[in-house]
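Quick question, first post here. What does this chain look like in 3D?
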Amino acid sequence: MSELKYMIWLSHMHGTNMQYIDELLERLGSAQSVYNATSEQLKSTNIMPQTAISKLIDLKKTLNPDELLSDMQRKGIKYISKNSDNYPPLLKAITSAPIGLFMLGEMPDFDRLWVSVVGTRRPTNYGRDATKKIARELSERGVIVVSGMADGLDGVANQAALDGGSPTVAVLGSGVDICYPKVHERLYDDIQQNGCILSEFPPGIGPEKWHFPWRNRIISGLSLATIITEAEIKSGTSITVSCALEQGREVMAVPGNITSKRSEGTNKLIKDGAHVATCALDVLDALGVIESEFLDNINEEIHNINKLPLASNEKKVYSLLEDGYMGLDEIVKESGLEIRDVMVVLTKLELSGVIKELPGQKYTTK
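> Answer (accepted):
Ran it through. Tokens below.
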């Protein structure tokens, strides 16, 4: 509990390059040691610029770790450290992953496929219908749909996922105790009952413009694929696309009306090589998952997958794990595959029940 309160305190460094914080934690050994370090000790590590050191020292003067923990417990907010087994493994693999996440609700099962569905805040009726269709179909097949609960298509995606019966995840650009936008108060409550609200921003932090581009790397980072259902060429959604591509994740787009500005962004993505998404089956196909091997609905488990022969990439990865356990970076290096392809294979093998993940993002056969 002692380290937890100091991690919560350290998470108030949101907006700072997370690599600085990761390196500082590794060098000093714990968040409590970071809290106890003097300005001179922090400077001697040669990790952070003086502006970040000054911010850290100021946090010691203005924030009490015990009070922060007490406030969270009173509000029913959970904190998931990056070192926790309950921290999303796909997110942990990205550069500048948050050192921790604040959460309301319950984290969905990591053994399922996680897919992000995002789009414009000013959708057409077509965009709404397309988003509802794809998000609901994915949810009906047991896929965890991730979105931002924002005005427009993000909120539509989260609601459609709930309608499909599976848990959904909403990533906010504010503290999890602040429902933004207010119009989604009912959706905000419903997600906590079947899924979770996540944010790297501490409780009480309101939405700011710069929060949302920063938040978008988490939306894409949680998932193997990001689907853009409707967007203009220059939009906040394009930031999510850039994040997904940098993270080595699949990007898919819903084709739209060629005369609509709202579809210019998605149609350009397709011209540039993004997979077309018109239904859940398109998404599963792009990720190399055969629907007959996948969940038919929320009440069923993966069936027959253990009886099917493994594809070549799956055999390659599985053979690496037969003699023991191996970390993600080592699997990527030894297999010669791209990290995106390795994550797809690992997810399929976990879903089939032939491998399991160990603490520290290591994998082994069952």
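The first helix runs from residue 2 to 10.
The chain has three domains: 2-75, 105-291, 304-365.
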